[in-house]
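Re-running the complex after MR caught last week's input typo. The corrected sequence lines follow. Everything else is unchanged.
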Amino acid sequence: MNRRSLLKHIALGALVAGTTLTACKSEPPPPPPAPAAPAKPAPLKVGFVYVGPVGDAGWTYAHDLGRKALEAKFGDKVQTTFVEKVPEGPDAERVIRDLVTQGNKVIFATSFGYGDAMAKVAKDFPDVYFEHATGFKTAPNLRVYEGKFWEDAYLAGVLAGKMTKSNVLGFVATFPIPEVLRNINAYTLGAQSVNPKVKTKVVWVSSWFDPPKETEAAQSLMNQGADVLLQNTDSTAVLQAAEKNGKYAFGWDSDMSAFAPKAHLASCALNWGVYYVKAIEDVMNKTWKVENTKWGIKEGMNDFVKVADFVPEDVKKKVAETKAGIVDGSIQVFKGPLLDNTGKVLLKKGEVADDAWRSQVNFYVKGVEGKVPSGK
Amino acid sequence: MNELALLVAAMLSAGTPLAIAGLGLLVNERAGVLNLGAEGMMLMSAVAGFAAAYHTGSDWVAFAAGAAVGAAAAAAFGWLVIWLNTNQYATGLALSLFGGGFSAFVGVSYVGRKLVERSHYSVPLLRDLPFLGTAFFEQHPMVYIAIALAGAMAWFLYRTRAGLVLRSIGESPDSAHALGYPVRRIRLAAVMFGGALCGISGAYLSTVYAPLWVEGMTAGRGWIALALTVFATWRPARVMLGAYLFGGVTMLQLHLQGLGVQIANQFMSMLPYVATIVVLVIISRNPLWIRLNMPASLGKPFFPGA
Amino acid sequence: MIQLEVRPTPSRLMSVLSPVIALAFTVAVAAVLFAALGKDPVQGLRVFLVEPLRGARGLTELGLKATPLILCSLGLVLCYRSNVWNIGAEGQYLLGAITGGGLALWVTVAEVPMAPWAFFPLLVLAGALGGAAWAALVAFLRDRFTANEILVSLMLVYVANLLLSWLVFGPWKDPNGFNFPQTASFAAATEVPRLVRGMRLNWGFGVALAAAAATWVFLFRTYRGMQLQIGGSARAAARYAGFSSRWALWTSLLVSGGLAGVAGACEAAGPMGQLTPYVSNGYGFTAIIVAFVGRLHPLGCVLSSVLLSMFLIGGELAQSRVGLPAALSGVFQGVLLLSLLACDTLIQHRLRWAASR
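Corrected-run output:
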């Protein structure tokens, strides 16, 4: 190639160079001097980093509802911003850093994969508060929070155990991480507590949000006899597939009752707002400290809602009793004697699972068919 | 036994979008134009179809909307490659990428929306047959339309004059041009028809198969449909066969998981893609076979009067 | 009726103007879209085109984002010039991340003492081998079975993704990572050394620029490079002259795979510092656009990588600063490429009015 292509590259380069020069020249104007009279305090800026689209009716939607709850509670004392569909990789660090340099003093990152990025940026900005959902890395200005989703899954299991006719339950699962395995196990245990004959089949879709794949997975489970489905994917696909086939299913992450009036038994809804309000109050009252917050139904972080009208009264009563038991601590989801599905003892009689046990869940309890995918 | 019937039914349903898109691409390629933008067209039609179904409540309006969008996108593509003679591969890829971004953008307000309750379709009487009833006769009409389409296409290509002209344009556009046929217009018509079918396939995905919109929901089906045309050596009946096989492998993999088969689920998920490669290799193995069956001018630009 | 008439010689003016017109058209479309969404078009454009270039951090982040794009697109340039339609750069990138990341993981777990400057060449080599091996599959299937490389390379992308997923969920999972899908964090010695203190720009960028220079030399100053191009554009002539298109096939795919693999390895051992399922952002596919916008020319690839990185970073900023939806950068990329392809015809053809026949 020759002058011709060289010319065109010079043109393109000039374009890029020109914009660079204009960028460097145009520095932002200096901030105006503080007004003399006492003005209203500047709002606390809060940034949210979302892994999915806000409209997914699932995980990110629930977090965004939490953000809106924050705005409703504090009005113009806070100013929220969000960035959605941020990939969990090197880009996350850039987004978080940019939010901080934009003046956000509290950053909520709503997916496990942001942990490293949060840790790196937290180190550089010690006066900014970082809150990481479902993570485990902490720092003096970085803490983690999570819901007790397994409580909802247990309640779903109780309801499923009573409503199933085939005694086969189905679970459409995303990735074999502890959170998901806990939910599968809690679902099964809840069902077994009212119906010992129940079995659970699991299908993995390797994605948090893929409606066609979720539909196929749900169909496959129903073809194999499952008549009550639970999922931890983020869309309403499983619920809708169940409706189409005359089976039952649950909403997950948010109230999905509107999507499948005949199939919807109840929804395992998330209510992040209660934690977000507490976190901001901590910042405003200067009571913020590093902790690993795990809130459940008792604190209002998640809830089992919209139990369907067509569910028989005695079943509704049983669900309500179980919920009350979870709230006052008399019912523990994971307690001994507990066996995994190969017969190994997980918890001895009288033992109750603690946080450490729960965070290491990498097995199926008795009643779940198959083996946990782990490549081993 | 019932499980097997249900699996067959699921296979038919899963294969239908691939079949319809594959048939459309077949017409495209028979005319000598390779449209790599299938994925983008399917995505744009999926969002158009979903929006149409959401606002009107009718499946058929959704299919029409999908077909219209697909044809429009294909027309733009056709204008670029047929009249402006841009590189077919690059333009097709650009269309795919653009379609992905554009559909995501337009679809933002439709994520998480629900469509009106769909009717449950089945063929009366026949659906009560044991096994066959469950396997074949409880499907959405589009499944049967797809099969009929394959038949109609075979008849068109091999038994009508118009089909002969189309095929000859695919083999040797210069000769067809010399004989006085408006090569470019016929190619455009073929491309638009292909686009319309890809559009119907996309709309089927978002309104019938998984009645939801989410960006990227075709998950590579457009590319698989392209592979299908090669697998089928450009014959309609074989496109159907390939589509159902592929749909079958996908559903089978999920079924095996539910049965507790001990292979890591990622390897199971790889099955459809590996199967496509294997089949492609088997079909392509004999270059003479490919040359005999592939439209000779596929992918090459045509210059009338050049 | 407007007709396209072949020019006697390709227009030099148009080949300079074509990308400029395409970019201008894209910017116009962007402004219209912003206005239609109820946002200030000027502010929107500023966020996309100006903000990403602000300050040292802005420029280094731009370079960091452009590095994998440059590397992948260079390989694609070689392929497309040889008429080998490799769409699977993404899969080759992932394999490079796997092999490079795997090496880093081994060094970390086995606690092999190593200096960063010594590890880096090994990392590059491992990444290149991984990516090249994956591309070799494509080359082999095309060479031996005439299997269409477009479809094979694309299917292998899905396979590569699932392979990575299996590795980080299974054998390579961090035993101290609470069962989450990630490897252990790589030892500090394995991290790709940085170029600017405090910023994330690293030696990968240097490798990318060096690769661009090497590709340019190869394509335009060596005999083999010329063979490659002729083998691609004029098969019969090439055969007559004794140039092997088989050689072009293997070389272009292996080099392309190797470059993409290096990109993957540098990303895994650089800004990520571990292997997770999220090591790629579709760089392999964006690189296709980059290659075309860069006119299949190494220098052009560097410039268009920067341009597309601006679109990508600008898209993120547009969300938090202006409230625009995330899907916009995809739209702009597509519009840019399509308008570029359209404008390119004006290089070889000119428009003229003619009486209808």
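None of the earlier attempt is carried over here. Chain A has two domains: 44-147, 149-270+301-359. The longest helix of chain A spans residues 3-25.
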